Automatic annotation (TrEMBL):
CDD domains: NAT_SF (cd04301). It comes from Photobacterium phosphoreum. This is GNAT family N-acetyltransferase. Residues 1-152 form the N-acetyltransferase domain. PROSITE patterns: GNAT. Pfam families: Acetyltransf_7. The lineage of its organism: Bacteria, Pseudomonadati, Pseudomonadota, Gammaproteobacteria, Vibrionales. SUPFAM superfamilies: Acyl-CoA N-acyltransferases (Nat). Transmembrane segments: none annotated. One of its GO terms (molecular function) is acyltransferase activity, transferring groups other than amino-acyl groups. InterPro entries: Acyl_CoA_acyltransferase (IPR016181), GNAT_dom (IPR000182).
């Protein structure tokens, strides 16, 4: 297993992997088609995909993680958003997602990124030090599902904003 930065030749495989990972996801409306693959592509096209990592086995890409800059109180920050995170169904539960998260966080810390936020399952992401922060919020989202992890300094106070790639249809 190897984790590395994405290459242009990976884009098609990342798109397919992300689509399959989120197809019939329990947090989607029944019958809804996934859009997470479109988010990654729009972030890439807007040059806002700050860190895009793949995990591959001997033959294929089996996991992908994306990080992109966020706004805090409408201003640029030194914080990023994690997501989406995708792992092939046959490799889920084998530590691939965990390895991608840990590697990604170490890369961001080395780049002097101060912290990371995400929208996800508290039971999963708590093991990496993510937790709900009352002073850092995302409008319209239950607080327990919006989590943050400081990589340096303290957690800022304010409202988080994601790039428009997350909201386009």
């Amino acid at each position: 297993m190897e984790i590395r930065a994405e290459k242009v030749s990976d884009i098609e495989n990342i798109t397919a992997l992300t689509y399959r990972t989120f197809e019939n996801h329990p947090h989607h409306e029944p019958g809804a088609k996934p859009t997470e693959h479109l988010i990654v592509n729009r972030l890439r096209e807007a040059n806002m995909l700050a860190l895009s990592l793949v995990c591959e086995d001997e033959n294929n890409i089996i996991g992908h993680i994306a990080f992109s800059p966020i706004l805090i109180n409408g201003k640029q920050s030194t914080w990023y958003g994690l997501g989406p995170l995708s792992v092939t169904s046959e490799h889920q539960g084998k530590g691939i997602g965990s390895a991608l998260i840990r590697f990604g966080l170490s890369q961001l810390k080395a780049q002097d990124i101060e912290g990371v936020v995400l929208l996800g399952e508290p039971q999963y992401y708590a093991r990496f030090g993510f937790e709900s922060q009352p002073n850092l919020t995302l409008a319209g989202v239950p607080a327990e599902y919006f989590m943050a992890k400081a990589l340096a300094n303290n957690i800022p106070k304010g409202e988080v904003g994601y790039h428009s790639a997350f909201f386009e249809s």
